[in-house]
Design a protein that fits this description.
Elements: H1 7-20, H2 26-42, H3 58-61, E1 66-67, H4 77-85, E2 92-97, E3 100-101, E4 116-119, H5 120-125, H6 131-134, H7 145-152, E5 158-162, E6 172-178, E7 184-186, E8 189-194, E9 199-208, E10 215-224, E11 229-237, E12 243-252, E13 257-264, E14 269-278, E15 284-291, E16 298-307, E17 313-322, E18 327-336, E19 344-353, E20 359-368, E21 374-382, H8 386-394, H9 399-415, H10 421-432
Parallel strand pairs: 1-7, 2-6, 5-8, 6-9, 7-10, 8-10, 9-11, 10-12, 11-13, 12-14, 13-15, 14-16, 15-17, 16-18, 17-19, 18-20, 19-21
Antiparallel strand pairs: 2-3, 4-5
């Protein structure tokens, strides 16, 4: 019998199901099995699928990645990564190592009554919320193989419940570290729910050890009830031999607000998807992103916004800075459904190429079925402005410094949209450092 690319995942899945059989509820075992069957049916995406045309993950994703069922915190490497990932000691912090919650490294400060900031494995064990329905993610799309794979191995991740009318004053920091030696894989699943009128800020950080490439396959699910507000940040700092594939799914109700700030610096290949469903009137959403591949990195950013109801506004700005032989992909889709009159949707993607060998593929899309809307989209790709360089040089600024100043200015309007001081300062440090900016 000829082995297929899915055999390693099937073998790992059978072992995982066996190990989980004594603790997993029947509905979860069934959900995992259904998802694994769907992954097997879909297979690892190829470039023949339109949504994967510019991102070839077949060789990387079909490696025999190993699930880590237990973690070791000895040796100091994990602690060193944790210190690197920390942003502010006043933040509530949940730490996961190789996909497993580490309680002794997590910090929960005083919280308003009813707020839950914990981990998914515990929530499943305690039968918290309606997890049976909430862990189901749509996998009908032929491009959804990795969503199905995450669901097949769903086990742990962040679990946040904020009741109606409650504001969590300090940001909630979710830290995901990959430290196990060898080619390993983790499938974090984060479930965030904000009740009516509640407010919170969440920061996701992904970081890993150097060495053989590992695979992070993450999903974050967000439910925003009426008038809820979430300020969401994602900092992707994976090591440069790794594979990072992730998706964020947001369901918004009437008058809610969602802000997304995505920053991608690491990984050999990174693909991040954001899917918004605006299922109510007077909703507002903002999607900002900055991706900075160098060397032979590939970074793929995909967004989909479904305007399903009238009187909603969305604003989107993604910027890319590419050097060496790096590749970038941006695909932004805005769907305005028939009932979504008075929609106001703006989308912009801008890319700065610092090398003749850098390549970016950008595809902003509008699909409109309503007739009373204001929708715009655009994409620009260019190099550093020679007139601006000349202006700075004529005032005594060196060529290298002038280039760095212009690169910083190009990226900084996305960074300045971040309202959490510790996160903004962290990003500014990266932009100003020799590791953050391409070597110019």
């Amino acid at each position: 019998m000829i082995a297929t690319e899915n055999d390693a995942y099937q073998e790992a899945f059978q072992q995982f199901q066996s190990e989980q059989s004594s603790t997993a509820p029947a509905w979860l075992a069934e959900l995992r099995q259904t998802a694994m069957s769907r992954f097997t049916q879909l297979g690892i995406p190829t470039k023949r699928i339109e949504d994967w045309r510019f991102t070839n993950v077949k060789s990387l994703a079909s490696m025999p990645y190993r699930n880590v069922q237990s973690i070791s915190l000895s040796g100091g490497e994990a602690e060193a990564l944790l210190e690197k990932a920390k942003l502010d000691e006043s933040f509530h912090r949940l730490v996961f190592v190789n996909g497993h919650f580490v309680s002794q490294w997590s910090t929960e400060h005083e919280l308003p009554e009813g707020v839950v900031i914990g981990n998914l494995a515990t929530a499943i064990r305690e039968e918290a919320g309606d997890l049976q329905n909430r862990l189901s993610v749509e996998t009908d799309d032929e491009a959804a193989a990795f969503i199905a794979l995450n669901t097949a191995f769903v086990n742990d991740g962040a679990y946040v419940e904020i009741p109606d009318g409650v504001t969590v004053d300090q940001p909630i920091h979710l830290i995901f570290l990959s430290v196990e030696a060898g080619q390993t894989v983790s499938h974090p699943r984060n479930v965030l729910r904000l009740g009516k009128g509640s407010r919170a800020a969440v920061v996701e950080t992904y970081l890993g050890r150097e060495g053989e490439g590992y695979f992070t396959n993450a999903i974050t699910q967000v439910d925003l009830d009426e008038t809820a507000f979430l300020d969401h940040h994602k900092l992707q700092h994976e090591q440069t031999e790794s594979l990072h594939i992730a998706s964020t799914h947001v369901d918004q109700k009437e008058s809610s607000e969602f802000r997304s700030h995505y920053f991608s610096f690491g990984s050999l290949m990174a693909r991040n998807e954001i899917n918004l469903m605006l299922d109510g009137e007077q909703i507002e959403s903002t999607l900002n992103g900055l991706y900075m591949p160098t060397g032979e990195q590939l970074m793929d950013c995909r967004t989909r916004i479904d305007h399903a109801r009238p009187h909603c506004n969305t604003y989107e700005l993604y910027k890319g800075i590419l050097d060496d032989k790096a590749k970038g992909v941006f695909n932004g889709k805005i769907f305005v459904h028939q009932d979504a009159q008075k929609t106001d949707a703006k989308q912009s993607n801008q890319a700065l190429l610092l090398s003749d060998d850098a390549v970016v593929n950008t595809k902003p899309q509008l699909e409109i079925y309503a007739d009373d809307v204001k929708c715009t989209h655009g994409a620009t790709i260019g190099e550093l402005d020679e007139n601006s360089l000349y202006y700075l040089r004529s005032r005594g600024v060196s060529k290298d410094l002038a280039r760095k100043m212009l690169i910083f200015a190009f990226a900084n309007d996305v960074v300045q949209g971040v309202e959490i001081p510790a996160v903004r300062q962290h990003l500014e440090t990266i932009l100003l450092s020799s590791h953050g900016l391409p070597d110019v």
